[in-house]
Design goal:
Elements: H1 4-7, E1 16-20, H2 24-32, E2 39-44, E3 48-50, H3 55-59, E4 69-71, H4 72-75, E5 82-86, E6 89-93, E7 98-101, E8 104-107, E9 110-113, E10 117-119, H5 125-130, E11 132-133, H6 137-154, H7 160-167, E12 169-172, H8 176-196, E13 207-210, H9 222-234, E14 238-240, E15 245-248, E16 252-255, E17 260-262, E18 266-268, E19 272-274, E20 285-286, E21 290-292, E22 305-307, E23 312-313, H10 327-345, E24 360-365, E25 368-373, E26 376-379, H11 381-394, H12 398-414
Parallel strand pairs: 1-2, 1-9, 2-5, 9-22, 11-18, 12-13, 12-18, 13-14, 21-23
Antiparallel strand pairs: 3-4, 6-7, 7-8, 10-19, 15-16, 16-17, 20-21, 24-25, 25-26
Length: 439
C-alpha cells in the first residue's frame, strides 16, 4: 500500500479489525473488542462520539454542547489494542481487503461498517436547501443560532407577517425527535422567551408539527401517540397528521392538503437514509441505502465485511424491513460481532443476532413523557422521570452525566435555559431575502 504510511497504523501481528463510524454501534463494538486478541482501528470524520438523542436539547438551549459529546481517545485511553484515526473512508476494496480514506489506505482482516444514517429529504431539493436537519452536533448549534438570531431580528421588524415568519416554527416528522423538539420549542415559548423578549407578543409564536401518517410516534402503540398528541396540543403545538410537505422555499411551506404556512424555520426530522460506501457490489445495498446482511451481520457476498446499526438491513419475519434505526439494535449488534469475531478466530460456529427490544420512549417536555417497555406502559411524570434516568445513564462519560443532571435540575427549578448563545455562524446565511416577498 503506497499510502498506508500516512495512516501510521503499525502491524502488531494480530488480526486487524477496522470499524468505520463511532456511533452507538461502533462504540459498543470497540469496547467489546478489548477482550479479543485483535488490533482495533476506529475511523471517524469527527474525533468524538455524539449522543444524538439529546441534540434537540442543545438546539433549544437546554444543554451545553460539550455535555453530549465525548472524545474517542479519552474513552479508550486505557484500551491498549485500540487505535483511532481522524479521517473519512472513501472506498472499500474487498478483493485486496483494504480501505481508501482521506489520510491513506489500510488493510483489514475484518471490516465493520457502522456509518449510521443521514437526513433523507426524499428527493426534495428545495427542502434540502432550506430546511434545518437534526443529525449532528453542528446541526444543533446551527439551529440554536438560528432560533436566537431570528428572535433578535424580530425585535426590529414592523411588518407583522414577516415578524411571524421569524418566530414561527414548522417541525416535520412525528417520531421521537420531532415530538421532542416541538415540545422543547413550546417550553421556550412558555417559560424562557417571555423574559428574554418582553417586547414580543409570544402568543403569535406558532409551532406546527407535520406527520404524514395517521398518528405520531408510529414506533409505539397507538395510545402512546394519542397521549403524546394530547400533551403537545395542551402545550399549544398544532399537530397535523395525514399531512406531508410538498415544497419549501425558505419562507413558504406548502402542505399536501393545500394549506400554506409562513416560516423561516422548518426543522426536518422526517426520515433518514443509510450512509453507504463505494466499492461493494450493488446487490449488497437494499432500499433506503442499507446493506443487506445475514443473521450474523455479514454483508451479503462478503464473509469478512459486516454492517451494523442504521446502515444494516437484516430482514426477517419479525422485521421485514430490517430492525428499527435506533441505538439499541446497533449496540446489541456491535457487542455480538465482537463475540463472533472471536469465534471466527477460534473456528467455532457463529451466533445469530436476535434483537432484544427493550421498549420505546419519548418526552414531550416537563413532567410529560410516554414509555412502553413490554407490557409496562406509562405516561406523564413517572414516564418523564424514567426517560431522564435512562438517557442520563446512557451518556458516555461520568462528567457528562453530572453536567446533564445539574443542567436538568437547574432548568427544572428555575424555568430557565442558560445556554442561549449565538456562537459562530448565525445560522441565517442560507435564508432567502424576503424584503419584497409577496404573501
Amino acid at each position: 500500500m503506497e499510502n498506508q504510511k500516512q495512516t501510521r497504523i503499525p502491524n502488531i501481528g494480530k488480526p486487524r479489525v477496522i470499524i468505520i463510524g463511532g456511533g452507538f454501534g461502533g462504540l459498543e463494538l470497540a469496547k467489546a473488542l478489548k477482550k479479543v486478541d485483535v488490533q482495533t482501528v476506529l475511523f471517524d470524520k469527527h474525533n468524538h462520539h455524539t449522543f444524538q438523542p439529546l441534540l434537540y436539547q442543545v438546539a433549544t438551549s437546554g444543554l451545553e454542547t460539550s455535555s453530549i459529546v465525548y472524545p474517542f481517545r479519552k474513552k479508550f485511553d486505557n484500551q491498549k489494542n485500540f487505535y483511532f484515526r481522524l479521517g473519512e473512508v472513501k472506498r472499500i476494496n474487498p478483493e485486496e481487503r483494504y480501505i481508501e480514506t482521506s489520510i491513506g489506505t489500510l488493510e483489514y482482516d475484518f471490516l465493520i461498517i457502522a456509518t449510521g444514517a443521514t437526513t433523507n429529504y426524499y428527493g426534495a431539493k428545495d427542502i434540502a436547501k432550506h430546511a434545518l436537519p437534526m443529525k449532528t452536533i453542528e446541526d444543533s448549534i446551527r439551529l440554536r443560532n438560528r432560533i436566537i438570531n431570528n428572535f433578535e431580528q424580530a425585535l426590529l421588524v414592523e411588518d407583522e407577517v414577516k415578524l411571524n415568519s421569524l418566530i414561527d416554527f414548522v417541525v416535520v416528522g412525528g417520531g421521537p425527535t420531532g415530538v421532542e423538539i416541538a415540545g422543547a420549542l413550546s417550553e421556550l415559548r412558555n417559560h424562557v422567551f417571555p423574559t428574554d423578549y418582553k417586547e414580543l407578543d409570544l402568543l403569535k409564536m406558532d409551532i406546527d408539527l407535520i406527520e404524514a401518517s395517521p398518528s405520531i410516534l408510529n414506533g409505539m402503540a397507538q395510545p402512546a401517540g394519542q397521549k403524546a398528541q394530547q400533551f403537545l396540543e395542551k402545550m399549544g403545538v398544532r399537530v397535523h397528521t395525514n399531512t406531508s410537505v410538498k415544497s419549501y422555499d425558505g419562507y413558504t411551506v406548502e402542505l399536501s392538503d393545500g394549506k400554506k404556512l409562513i416560516t423561516r424555520n422548518l426543522i426536518w426530522a422526517a426520515g433518514v437514509t443509510g450512509c453507504v460506501l463505494e466499492g461493494l457490489n450493488a446487490e449488497a445495498v437494499a432500499k433506503g441505502n442499507r446493506y443487506n446482511v445475514n443473521e450474523f451481520n455479514q454483508i451479503n457476498g462478503y464473509d469478512d465485511i459486516f454492517a451494523i446499526g442504521d446502515v444494516a438491513c437484516m430482514a426477517s419475519e419479525d422485521y421485514p424491513r430490517g430492525h428499527p434505526q435506533m441505538a439499541p439494535p446497533a449496540m446489541q449488534q456491535g457487542m455480538l460481532i465482537a463475540k463472533n469475531i472471536k469465534k471466527i478466530m477460534e473456528k467455532k460456529p457463529l451466533k445469530a443476532f436476535k434483537y432484544s427490544h427493550k421498549g420505546a420512549m419519548a418526552t414531550i417536555g416537563r413532567n410529560r413523557a410516554v414509555i412502553e417497555m413490554g407490557k409496562f406502559k406509562t405516561q406523564g411524570f413517572f414516564a418523564w422521570f424514567i426517560w431522564m434516568f435512562v438517557h442520563l445513564m446512557s451518556l458516555v462519560g461520568y462528567k457528562n452525566r453530572v453536567l446533564v443532571f445539574f443542567s436538568w435540575m437547574w432548568n427544572y427549578f428555575s424555568y430557565d435555559r442558560s445556554n442561549r448563545l449565538i456562537i459562530g455562524s448565525t445560522g441565517t446565511e442560507q435564508q432567502p431575502d424576503v424584503e419584497n416577498k409577496e404573501i
